[in-house]
Amino acid sequence: MALRSIICIPDPRLRLVSKRVEVVDDSIRTLMDDMLETMYDAPGIGLAAIQIAEPLRVVVMDLAKKDDPPAPMFFVNPEILWASDDKADYEEGCLSIPEYYEIVERPARVKVGYQDRMGAHQEIEADGLLATCLQHEIDHINGVLFVDHLSRLKRERVMKKFQKAARLRESEQA
Ligand code: GNR
Ligand code: NI
User: Fold this and answer.
1) 140 CA distance to ligand 2 centroid (A)?
2) Domains of the chain by residue range
3) For the chain, is the Cβ count within 10 Å smaller at the N or the C terminus?
4) Does the predicted model carry a pTM greater than 0.90?
């Protein structure tokens, strides 16, 4: 397993639409293991492959509480098959937007189709944190970030802050 670095805004690769995985083979399983290690190290509860600069429709997650045994989940080519009309508010964060947290409103329940670690087709009905996290990660593989669900004022404020920090880092390197 290998630790990979997580890319952050304003990296334009976070806006790519990731490609479908055609065959779930050992290279995909190795990618998922590296993603899991990177996610645990961060630490975070979910990670999309594009966050380590791999534009593939692959997501890992672990929602186990601290002190509970690890419960890794693997999703290849996840897609929302159904979303409830009722909404839920959750405070979200993103490893690609460090130290920024805001409440996001999303459908409270979703049904998601995906392929598992062996490539078998599965469906899962989710509510609560799992529903929120699945939607957050499926957004990532479509080039969407949680700040896109906020007001334009809030989104532009955080994007500008990170753009400015990136420019400063560049000028220091020069
Ligand atoms: O670690 C994470 N926590 C989190 C909290 C609320 C809603 C979504 C998330 S996902 C995030 C990790 C991440 O950036 N995944 O893309
Ligand atoms: Ni994220």
Assistant:
1) 7
2) 12-173
3) C
4) yes
